[in-house]
Amino acid sequence: MRIGVLALQGDFSEHIAMLRRLQVDVVQVRLPEHLEQLDGLIIPGGESTTIGKLAVDFGLIEPLRQFGAHKAIWGTCAGAIFLSRDARRPQPLLELMDITVERNAFGRQIASFEVDLVVPELQLVDPSAQPYHAVFIRAPLIETVRGEARVLAQLDNGRIVAARQRHLLATSFHPELTDDDRFHRLFLHMASEVRQPRAAPV
Ligand code: GLN
Which residues are identified as catalytic? Predict the structure, then answer.
């Protein structure tokens, strides 16, 4: 399995460290040609406007859209914003996931916080069903989930913080900043599903 991490800005090195821990072959993606031969791509947290502008400058927007049409992509925090169809303000977006996000939705008072979440989808990789301890840093909320996108996790007040659309994954929080590798394993599972599509029924 070979996974790319978009390395334009943000906390890409933490994702790389987690993937290496899981014995995955990792490629830093800065140019379109770095997408060749990858089974999936992670877009890290950081500043979504900066990631978007750099992606425009490096000619990555269309190659990333084409990649995401067939292959697994996971965006954490700023990466989730960049994956979305709508961030309610003008900034470069991949528009791959049918979600609307609200940036910096928690305001200044609680810009960063941690909370336990129930994430049934993680049982695909770990049957224990332990709550997931999520770290939020100037995080977005996922306001709406449409079409083929579905909700994976919500706060107690019902606000959405993780969603999946077939081979695309968005989380408002930062699994790469914890020791819990279940989200990375879920993403590897999604990437391997795309890599070995189930045989079509005869
Ligand atoms: N606030 C950032 C943005 O809007 C995201 C923060 C993060 O990735 N931790 O792009």
Answer: 77, 174, 176
